[in-house]
Amino acid sequence: MPLLRWKLSYARSTSFLGVSVSLDLVSTGSQIDRMAAHMAAHSERMRAVPLFAHELLRTWHYQHEDTVNFLEGIEQGGVWPFALPVDPLLTVRAIKPEPASYTVLGTDGSQIEVDSHGLIHCCLINVGWAAISYGTKPEAWLSNQPLVVHQDEELFEDSEGSGLREAGEQHLAMLRTIAEIERLAELAETWRSRPAPLAIADGNLVRWELGGRRSRLGMPTLLHRYTAALARFRTLGIPICSYISRPNAREVANTAALLAVRDCARGEHAMCERCSGRRDRLCESLRVMPDRDLLSHLRPGECSGLFRSLAPVLQHYDFDDQILFCYLRTNDEMVRIELPRWVAASGHLESIIASLYGQCLRGRGYPVVLMEAHEQAVIHTGGREAFRQLVMEALNNHDMGASVSGKRLSKDQRAV
User: Fold this and answer.
1) In degrees rounded to 5, what are phi and psi of residue 401?
2) Total domains present in the chain
3) What is the dihedral of CA 158, 164, 168, 170, to 10 degrees?
4) Is the CB of residue 194 less than 8 Å from the CB of residue 141?
5) How does pLDDT run across 235-247, given as a tens digit for each residue?
6) Which residues contact 74 (CB under 8 A, 6 or more apart)?
7) What is the pTM of this model?
8) Residue 303 sits in which domain range?
9) Could you read off the pLDDT of 325-339 as tens digits, one per residue?
């Protein structure tokens, strides 16, 4: 049989920082440059918006009752996700010193995704936690707990009209989030006798992804588990809050946009005087402005007033567990703090903010307890490979031939 001679054509490799890459860096670089130019132009268009927004908020700050009445009138019919101010719009709270004795509890999670081309249809969720007491009797507990998920009812969703289908990334992320808050509630019960315990969740307490009109059939069960875990903190009397670093929420900005539209003197298609000469209206520009930019008047060590989220999913929370939020300026960034109604009403708000700010100072910009929980949760490359080996050995021990798909094999072995 004659030897076949193949003429191979590979994408030209280049070197970047001493590493050979096949990515077309010339094309990529030009696209990135266009992206940067677009961002610079957008920044220039937005330059006048912060001053306009601050003047708007200052006007409505002194009309708090009118502000709430107007916004409540469109609460059910609004098309933008906005928030109701609990305090006057430009309220600023100075943060008190960190308590001498207090306890913080935190959890975080990571996962090994389902690999449809792997050895078996399963995933692993690893929840890490940290419990730290400060004061006269310092104490700490750092650990983690893995959970192997393999049951069909957890890995497949019942999609209306089309039967079962493989659960997507959002579904698995929600399983991890539920595992985190359930473990946090268990920690709260175990450490409830420590001085001034505070549970801190990483990320939102408002589960936006579970409240959409297109939520899948399996979501109500997940939402019930989440809200049941959240209610446990109220039963225990232990405050819970969540910490969101570099938040991209626009609820307060959308609130300001609605107030601006109400004040706007323009006709349906005309520009008002303050927007004359602009490509876009100032009130519409507010809608693309993150809350963290809108509240840039806050200085390090200051906190905004409270706002009540109107996310549709909160209709499924107990009334006392519905979520309020505020913004806190640390030395490094603006962060969003979410907490249930009952926590804000219980007189814990000042001590919660003081503890969070103290945690950020100790952690050089991020709460120590969440940093330590993350370190316990993270699954490094060695752990992922060990998990794969354990799966392979278990399948072989039970006489179930362990094999991967041809696609996975092709990624491990290149051939022509």
Assistant:
1) -50, 120
2) 1
3) 0
4) no
5) 999 999 999 999 9
6) 258
7) 0.86
8) 92-249+290-381
9) 999 999 999 999 999
